[in-house]
Amino acid sequence: MKKRVTGIGGLFFKSKNPQASKDWYKKHLGFNTDAYGCTFWWKDKDGNDCSTQWSPFKEDTAYFQPSEKPFMFNYRVENLEALLEILRKEGVTIVGDMETYDYGKFAWVLDNENNKIELWEPIDSAFQ
């Protein structure tokens, strides 16, 4: 397996008022916001459509646990199942079980400072 992370899939952070944050970024920075935040579309080096999600979460969200940080990064990966096997062998803490949706597969790990990281094998075409 050559590739692990292929890009940034999302930037997630806690907000006192997620809707006010979305409104501010829409008004002042031109974000095209929706119920989840803002999706940025781009092309990879091979010309494939890709996306990165920006999302404010409620301040009391449990989604970032067990990390106590007010943020979580989502990284786009290639072949999540194979990567999880490698990470297990390397002693990386895996949080919960892999989940599969029509827009991709997700798994979570903790880094060396116990930051929760979301790994996403995307199906970008599901968003179009």
Topology record:
Blueprint: E1 5-15, H1 18-29, E2 33-34, E3 37-43, E4 49-58, E5 71-77, H2 80-89, E6 94-101, E7 104-110, E8 116-122
Parallel strand pairs: 1-4, 5-8
Antiparallel strand pairs: 1-5, 2-3, 3-4, 6-7, 7-8
Helix content: 10-25%
Assembly state (oligomeric): single chain
Strand order of the largest sheet: 2-3-4-1-5-8-7-6
Note poorly predicted spans: none
Taking the alpha carbons of the first and last residues, their distance comes to 29 Å
Tell me the number of strands: 8
| SSE class | alpha+beta
What is the 3D form? globular
Q: What is the overall number of helices?
A: 2
H/E order of the elements? EHEEEEHEEE
Radius of gyration: 15 Å
Largest sheet: 8 strands, mixed
Strand content: over 45%
Mean pLDDT: 94
Written description of the protein model:
This protein is an alpha+beta fold and 128 residues long. The protein is 17% helix and 46% strand. The chain has two helices and eight strands. Strands 2-3-4-1-5-8-7-6 form an eight-stranded mixed sheet, covered by helices on one side. It is globular and about 45 Å long. It starts with a strand and ends in a 6-residue tail after the last strand. The mean pLDDT is 94.
Summed up, what is this model?
The protein has 128 residues and is an alpha+beta fold.
Comma- or semicolon-separated keywords:
128 residues; 8-stranded mixed β-sheet; 17% helix; globular
